[in-house]
Amino acid sequence: MTIDKQGASLQRILENMHTSVLLLDSALRLRFINPAGEMLFALSAQRFIGQPVDNVLFDRDATLALQQVLQTGSPFTERELVLNLGYRDKVTVDLTAIPLYDGGGGETELLVEMKQVDRQLRITREEGLLAQSHATRALVRGLAHEIKNPLGGLRGAAQLLERELHNEELKEYTHIIISEADRLHALMNRMLGPNALPHKRQINIHQAVERVRQVVGAEISQGISLVRDYDPSIPDVYADLDQLIQALMNLVRNAVQALGDEGEITLRTRALRQYTIGTVLHKLVARVDVIDNGPGIAPDMRENLFLPMVTGRVEGTGLGLPIAQSLVNANGGLIEWESRPGQTVFTVLLPIELKRENLQEAQA
């Protein structure tokens, strides 16, 4: 094979790779970028060839790492590197940078390969959330069974004892026993969450969101504003309206409690195409975001956020999020979240099961 043919073959390989490949000169100017890189960074190769890599990455830390590779001559690999790009918040990549030496004494070039891993990380996280939700429900069900049986006996014994007592002062103690047994029984039922199967039907997602907005809007202080950001074109979802309202109510009330007396909550709806929930790919998914500009979720709570009894409030029970997750799971969906100071987002994802007459329109 001639050199020209080898070069043409290499060009075809690079153009058909799914990973992004960049070639930089010794001054970290872009000399080559393949189509996958153009898609990742949303740029045109013709426009950016010859420009500093800063104009591509928009990330100073990544640029400093590439400069270090040139200085040391050692390859560099960084897993799950978060790049803060100029046109969107961030993108997570596995990055490998390799210095290329010219045997003729020319300048050193830098070969950079990036593989976007946001989707893989999200799928792994969703699988963890689903597994956590299922394991939690199984544990709570077993625990509730062990607690509710002796509670029933305790309450019955207190009632029998009360009948035999003629001193009203002593009956106060049996009243306490009965009321506390009832309180624990109600707590167990709340921890178990909904036991009934969802009554699914085709509903407009905004029916649920608007109901929640109206109810919570009547409860909140004047310092908190509820902002609507809806996509009215979202097709109907096949879900239980009451369960969906309850799940969203829990999320919005949590946001209100996080804000205190002042702040903003945004209710945003969007449609996502070819989106994976857990391990299942759906043609169309409805997304509902509950966004608040509060202080964010404390780092020590993040890993166990959907476990029962985990709460950041003294008066809280820690049941709102686990119950919301169970309700959304029962309707084939999932709740995700992300948080930083000034912005916390809880996202409800629900698959849209299209009717045959609407399928062709959605795929267009």
Overview of the structural elements:
The chain is an alpha+beta fold and 364 residues long. It folds into three domains: 3-116, 2-Layer Sandwich (Beta-Lactamase), CATH 3.30.450.20; 121-192; 201-363, 2-Layer Sandwich (Heat Shock Protein 90). It is 45% helix and 25% strand. The chain has eleven helices and twelve strands. The strands form three sheets. A five-stranded antiparallel beta sheet has the order 2-1-5-4-3. It has a five-stranded mixed beta sheet with strand order 7-9-10-12-11. Strands 6-8 form a two-stranded antiparallel sheet. A hairpin with a 5-residue loop joins strand 1 and strand 2. Helix 6 (118-164) runs antiparallel to helix 7. The longest helix has 47 residues, at 118-164. The two termini are 45 Å apart.
In short:
The chain has 364 residues and is an alpha+beta fold.
Radius of gyration: 28 Å
Q: Would you tell me the structural class of the helices and strands? A: alpha+beta
Q: Give me the side-by-side strand order of the main sheet.
A: 2-1-5-4-3
> What is the CATH C level class of the largest domain, in words?
Alpha Beta
* Mass-distribution shape: elongated
- By DSSP (H or I, 4+ residues per run), the number of helices equals 11
Question: Segments where pLDDT lies below 50 for 5+ residues?
Answer: 355-364
**CATH structural architecture of the largest domain:** 2-Layer Sandwich
Q: What is the number of beta strands?
A: 12
